[in-house]
Automatic annotation (TrEMBL):
InterPro entries: Cell/Rod_1, Cell/Rod_MreC_2, MreC, MreC_beta-barrel_core. The gene is mreC. It comes from the Bacteria. Involved in formation and maintenance of cell shape. Keywords: Cell shape. This is Cell shape-determining protein MreC.
Length: 313
């Protein structure tokens, strides 16, 4: 429509009519004369409004989702924290069960050997006083610990006490190159001296160069005078290699220790030696050999190809 005088008058007239109709509708209330027209318009434009609404709803939902995402993220973070706390609690329980198992095994060894022990926990590992393979335990002079006492766990020989403080002590591990202990072969009198080699097997020099030793033989501590630094009968390890004798006065063995020196937690310090040598009673039971399964094959004669029975001979 062109912007003319007539068009302007028409626009003013339409606006005046619209205001008049609004006034009449408001004053008329439910009996408004334009109510019928409004219903007719609703029936025409209603479907269009619903279509527009359905098109807009996903956008509104997305806005709501974004608005609530912060709350959901907070809830997720809370669940993750609760899950981590639960795992930590379960881990703590697992550690407690592991320590109880170690303690039970240690008490079993002490009972078999009749060793009077003082239980302790490893609280540090590393260099101390020039030693490269040491641990620190949470028991000291106040607990009756003295220098040159034997230290063991549920598997066997751990080491000997070297330094004692009021509440802690330093233990030189059997794996340390400066460590030496007298040994005796199981069920025999072959004596030797075992020395640490770090993370390698212990090196044992037998005094008898002609001793008949084989892989799998086991050793225990021989014991020291006055039971210091070593009490007798503590399991040391299993022979993993035997060097040829070569006519030497001594014979060299390599022994895998029973104790895993990288996984030490609960240990026992022998504060009272046994009244008599336990000999081999503290050694674990020898594993039973696993029988080799045998397969028996039975051959059944096959029938003739033509299906007839073979005549009796």
């Amino acid at each position: 429509m062109r912007d003319t005088k007539e068009s302007r008058l028409l626009l003013v007239l339409l606006i005046a009519i619209a205001f008049a109709l609004i006034t009449v509708d408001i004053r008329g209330g439910e009996d408004s004369p334009v109510d019928g027209a409004r219903q007719a318009a609703a029936s025409v434009f209603g479907p269009i409004e619903n279509g527009v609404s359905s098109a807009v709803d996903p956008i509104g939902n997305a806005v709501t989702a974004v608005r609530e995402s912060g709350e959901r993220h907070d809830r997720l973070a809370q669940l993750e924290r609760e899950n981590a706390a639960l795992k930590a609690e379960l881990g703590s329980d697992d550690r407690s069960r592991s320590r109880l198992k170690q303690l039970d095994k240690l008490l079993g060894v002490a009972g078999k050997g009749q060793y009077g022990i003082k239980g302790a926990q490893v609280i540090a590992i590393g260099a101390a006083q020039g030693f490269s393979w040491t641990i620190t335990i949470d028991a000291g002079a106040e607990d009756g610990i003295e220098r040159d006492m034997t230290v063991l766990n549920g598997d066997g020989l751990v080491g000997r006490v070297t330094t004692v403080g009021p509440g802690t002590a330093t233990v030189l591990l059997a794996s340390d190159p400066d460590f030496t202990v007298g040994t005796r072969m199981e069920a025999g009198d072959e004596l030797g001296f075992a020395s640490g080699q770090g993370d390698r097997p212990l090196r044992v020099e037998l005094l008898n160069g002609k001793a008949e030793i084989k892989k799998g033989d086991r050793l225990v501590t021989f014991g020291s005078q006055a039971d210091k630094p070593f009490v007798p009968g503590v399991p040391v390890g299993v022979v993993s290699r035997v060097d040829p004798s070569g006519g030497d006065l001594t014979r060299t063995l390599y022994v895998t220790p029973y104790v895993n020196f990288s996984k030490l937690d609960v240990v026992g310090v022998v504060v009272q030696a046994p009244k008599k040598d336990p000999r081999d009673t503290v050694l674990p039971a020898k594993p039973k050999p696993t029988p080799t399964p045998t397969v028996t094959v039975t051959v059944t004669p096959s029938a003739p190809a033509d299906g007839t029975d073979q005549p009796e001979q």
